[in-house]
Amino acid sequence: DLRKQARQLENELDLKLVSFSKLCTSYGGARDGRRDRYSSDTTPLLNGSSQDRMFETMAVEIEQLLGKLTGINDKMAEYTNSAGVPSLNAALMHTLQRHRDILQDYTHEFHKTKANFLAIRERENLLGSVRKDIESYKSGSGVNNRRTELFLKEHEHLRNSDRLIEETISIAMATKENMTSQRGMLKSIQSKMNTLANRFPAVNSLIQRINLRKRRDSLILGGVIGTCTILLLLYAFH
């Protein structure tokens, strides 16, 4: 259940970070487009700063998701270190380490993107009155966006590979648990068969004793009847 919650939070974080990165990369271009609509360079750059508000909102949401994911990882660590955990500590530690690495990557990516956004915003505010610097920034914006898009696609491929590996590990762990359960059932059946095999000699011995006693009783009864018959005949002819 904790791993399921962690994967759900990781998926949400992945989508949030992609949107967050796109917002940051499109921030400068959007500012340039707004400035082109005005004839004067003295127009304030922060008029209608919807992207700034969106940035703050998304940053708060991502920080909350990172906090929740950190709590889930702590709970998984407590479960791994608790007593009574089956002999899967190696696999569990591997899984926990992978979730920690993912959390660390997301945290690093968030702080890096946030720092880049703040740097871009500060640079935009400082260079807002200089047309030449703005135009040079616009000329390089398309290349940067293309590179960022390629990096995001490569990042998505890596995330998909990690998810496939995670699913494979889950299937392998479930298979191991099923094989362990089947082995326990086979041992129980073998124990019962051994018990029955040990009981059969005692049953055979008891049956043989009963048969011997029946034969002895038949011989005694036949001897008594024969003796009585002889005595009757002697008495009759006497």
TrEMBL record:
Keyword DNA repair: no
MF terms in GO: SNAP receptor activity
Encoding gene (name): Gosr1
Matches recorded under Pfam families: V-SNARE_C
Keywords: Golgi apparatus, Membrane, Protein transport, Transmembrane, Transmembrane helix, Transport
Protein name: Golgi SNAP receptor complex member 1
Transmembrane in keyword set: yes
Cross-referenced CDD domains: SNARE_GS28 (cd15864)
Spans traversing the lipid bilayer: 219-237
Species of the source: Crypturellus undulatus
Role this protein plays: Involved in transport from the ER to the Golgi apparatus as well as in intra-Golgi transport. It belongs to a super-family of proteins called t-SNAREs or soluble NSF (N-ethylmaleimide-sensitive factor) attachment protein receptor. May play a protective role against hydrogen peroxide induced cytotoxicity under glutathione depleted conditions in neuronal cells by regulating the intracellular ROS levels via inhibition of p38 MAPK (MAPK11, MAPK12, MAPK13 and MAPK14). Participates in docking and fusion stage of ER to cis-Golgi transport.
Major location (coarse): Golgi
Subcellular location: Golgi apparatus membrane
Cited InterPro entries: Golgi_SNAP_su1
Gene Ontology cellular component annotations, sorted alphabetically: cis-Golgi network; Golgi medial cisterna; Golgi membrane; SNARE complex
Family to which this protein belongs: Belongs to the GOSR1 family.
Membrane topology listed for this record: Single-pass type IV membrane protein
Biological process according to GO: endoplasmic reticulum to Golgi vesicle-mediated transport; inter-Golgi cisterna vesicle-mediated transport; protein transport; vesicle fusion
